[in-house]
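hey m, so remember when u said the tokens were messed up on ur end? i reran from scratch. heres the input so u can diff it against urs
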Amino acid sequence: MVLFASLSIITNYHLPLSGALCIQYGYADLARYRIPKTVGEVEIISSKIGTPLITNHTNGKNKILIPCRDWEHAEEVLSKIKSLKKGGDVWA
């Protein structure tokens, strides 16, 4: 750890945030998903291994496919997506 700190000071090289710092800032296990302006019909489906996925059944650049931890998490993310008016970002 000391080696990395001294390397950062000497070369002005910044290392990515560690897990502890990410948890401190609230981005522990969240990923950002960009939601297009025209979403279409969004629903929760089950993947082959049983985890829920949020999808809009389209192909191309407007496709949405968000894996979730469990069904409650999927319902929360789905409500966030439906509350967006003209696209945007969802942290899930």
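this time it looks ok to me. Residues 22 and 28 are 5 Å apart (CA to CA). if urs says something different then somethings off w ur setup not the seq
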